[in-house]
């Protein structure tokens, strides 16, 4: 056997169909596209999701399985056990939590959760707090102040207003 004797296995290579090359080729005239109509035209055809004007399945689905609320409020979570970085009598708010590296963004709302114990009196100014966390803070002699969330609107406006609100809170304490 020599190099020039090598051939692909019989039937493994098939010539492509050359459409529109005359009657003898078997795919002449309309080139296998039928006669007239949208699919016979150059550039014709429909988008993959097109269903003849009916609302396409991909657009019907959100109504079936819910949706993602783009205006949802995402809270930054802080547990009671994390608040041991603060000394007794200190004020805990978005700005001081950022200083202690417990949250990343002072603009976003904060929620305090009840994991851990509280052994010092702190003044906690947050947007939301769990019942168990509130009970533990007040039992330790601390106080809880709920900072109201701002009215929803375009994201840039909300972020700017929250930032201004947190700065005034930080100056006041």
What does this structure look like?
The longest helix has 18 residues, at 155-172. The model has no long low-confidence stretch (mean pLDDT 87). The protein has a domain at 76-172: Ribosomal Protein L15, Chain: K, domain 2. It is an alpha/beta fold and 173 residues long. The chain has a 3-stranded parallel β-sheet. It has helices spanning 57-65, 94-99, 131-139, 155-172, and strands at 76-79, 91-92, 110-113, 123-126, 128-129, 143-146.
Give a quick set of tags describing it.
single chain, 173 residues, alpha/beta, Ribosomal Protein L15, Chain: K, domain 2, 3-stranded parallel β-sheet, 4 helices, elongated
Provide the spatial order of strands within the biggest beta sheet.
1-3-5
Stated plainly, the CATH topology of one domain is called Ribosomal Protein L15, Chain: K, domain 2
Q: In percent, how much strand structure appears in the residues?
A: 5-15%
Count every helix, treating DSSP H or I runs of 4 or more residues as helices: 4
Number of separate strands: 6
Q: Return the structural class.
A: alpha/beta
The CATH architecture assignment of one domain turns out to be Ribosomal Protein L15, Chain: K, domain 2
Radius of gyration: 34 Å
CATH class of one domain: Alpha Beta
Largest sheet: 3 strands, parallel
Question: Spans of 5+ residues with little confidence (pLDDT < 50)?
Answer: none
Layout of helices and strands:
Blueprint: H1 57-65, E1 76-79, E2 91-92, H2 94-99, E3 110-113, E4 123-126, E5 128-129, H3 131-139, E6 143-146, H4 155-172
Parallel strand pairs: 1-3, 2-4, 3-5, 4-6
């Amino acid at each position: 056997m020599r190099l020039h004797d090598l051939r692909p296995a019989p039937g493994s290579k098939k010539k492509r169909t050359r459409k529109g090359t005359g009657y003898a080729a078997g795919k002449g005239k309309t080139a296998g596209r039928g006669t007239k109509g949208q699919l016979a035209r150059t550039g014709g055809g429909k988008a993959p999701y097109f269903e003849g004007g009916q609302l396409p399945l991909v657009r019907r689905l959100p109504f079936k399985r819910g949706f993602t609320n783009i205006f949802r409020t995402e809270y930054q979570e802080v547990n009671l056990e994390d608040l041991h970085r603060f000394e007794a009598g200190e004020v805990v708010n978005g700005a001081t939590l950022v200083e202690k590296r417990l949250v990343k963004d002072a603009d976003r709302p904060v929620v305090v959760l009840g994991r851990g114990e509280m052994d010092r009196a702190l003044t906690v100014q947050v947007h939301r707090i769990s019942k168990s966390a509130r009970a533990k803070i007040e039992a330790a002699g601390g106080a809880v102040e709920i900072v109201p969330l701002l009215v929803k609107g375009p994201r840039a406006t909300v972020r700017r207003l929250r930032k201004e609100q947190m700065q005034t809170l930080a100056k006041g304490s």
